[in-house]
Model the fold of this input.
Amino acid sequence: MTTHSPRRRGLTEQAAEAAIDTACRMLRLPTIRGQFEELADTASREQMTYRGFLAELLMAECDDRARRRSERRIKAAGFPRDKSLRAFDFDANSNVDPATVHTLAKCEWIRKGLPLCLIGDSGTGKSHLLISLGTEAAMAGFRVKYTLAAKLVNELVEAADDKQLTKTIARYGRVDLLCIDELGYMELDKRGAELLFQVLTEREERNSVAIASNESFSGWTKTFTDARLCAAIVDRLTFGGNIIETGTSSYRLAHTKATKRASGTTRT
Done:
């Protein structure tokens, strides 16, 4: 006598939704869990194949995971504010070549471990470019760290005093791109300059450094008072790298004045 296994009945809609919710929680698929119902309705309406529907679900999860990873890398970088390349006003600063900046945004220089120097007066867009290019790098999957030059040096001095210098230098050496802002705003003593030099040496020809400075290289002797050390640091930050001079005219100040004039015109 032949026995037949009982025919398995399909799940009700409610039971299926509960099973999907439970499975997504267990498998940690929050995007599928959140978007399944909408994607299922779309699949039914557009008469997708089962394979097509499955592909849509998985791609939605992958895209959302990539977005969340980018957000975590941007947060870990420690940028002081959000700055994007879209928001940079190239028309207001003719010194900055848009093609050069957008080529840098593709991050090939980071893959090669090359440096980048942004040199110019206050208000000419150095920090904006530094942060926005760092953000592009984080979105492309690179580990990025932003810091002010003075803060970095203070941290290195404290680490040296606490006998944690090797560990601290190694931590700064591991990131793919180290962004150092406001280099040249204050004089560094010999010890601070030497510690900064150690960080740059740790990263040389392996991982990229991007700096923003309000001083031309010839003026760096005011920051690094030891002439030989100054020359060595300039060499580390320029060899094989990119140099963008943002000029001397503050478009931020010009924009502020223009806004005030426009506001005054409106009131009269």
